[in-house]
Amino acid sequence: ATPTDNTITNRRAHPYAFTQVGEVAVTSDKEIVAADKVSGERSIYDEELGVTLNRIVLRFSPSGELIDYLGQEGIGGTPFPYIQDVHVTAHDEIVVVSRTMNSWLVFWYDESGDPIYNTEISLDRLPVPEGEDVIPQLGAIIPDQEMRRLYLKLDYYEESYDTDTGANYGINKTVSRVYWLDLESGKYEDYVDIPKNTETASDSSFFDRETVEHLYKFVGTAPGNHLYFLSREDGKQTQLLIMNSSGRVVRRRNLQVEDEAVAYKTFSVSPKGVLVA
After folding, report:
1. d(CA 231, CA 249)
2. What does the angle CA 232 – CA 230 – CA 95 come to, to the nearest 5 degrees?
3. Strands lying side by side in the sheet with 83-88
4. Model pLDDT for residues 182-229, shown as the tens digit of each residue
5. Dihedral through CA 97, CA 218, CA 88, CA 81, nearest 10?
6. pTM, two decimal places
7. Residue 123, SS3?
8. Nearest to 27 by CA among 86, 88, 87, 85
């Protein structure tokens, strides 16, 4: 657009033909990284993973000019599988989280775009509480802001049976946890349980009260091993929970987010610990 008056502007627009833009993140130098889908002729089918590799991570200068793109091996590398998320740490290292049908893949790069680590989280080898027959569900993988560590948010479910007949009548959630994986050793170091967010349904009678549990979504990390969670409680209120890796709840805050006025929303946490929507 061209200004119609005599105002002076320092904005510049550089065109780029995105195919299917996805997750976006920003470095401390205001460089923009954005996931995109490559054209069909540049796609590669990976027989071992059983997926098509057709995603890349573009890097743009602060003024919007394309610098280069990242693939699995770094700058100009092989496309990724479907990209679930892109993160930039406090050290401007880029973390790409991809997904296949059977696993999540994490690629970690330094600020220059050179690969540091890559790891595969198989869905059939997720950590489970010792001695319990539960079904784990992986909800998110988010990097630490300061250390080369990954946090995995897991929800566990168990089958419920009627005590009289033995019939299976459903699956109930038992606990939610965040495990952290040290990329240097490749081992899960520890975990913390996420507290439950429950309330009594407002339309329940005094003698027939129904307890409703609102699940937390893991949205980001902040320096000092702080973990950020959001739980939607009703059409207008969302609870923010901040806890540290020792399990201590640091903050609880209620946010007014009126869903009926929102067409689309997504949340993230900046390297300095600011919740961004």
Report:
1. 15
2. 135
3. 83-88, 94-99, 103-109, 115-122
4. 999 999 999 999 998 887 666 656 566 677 888 999 999 999 999 999
5. 10
6. 0.87
7. helix
8. 88
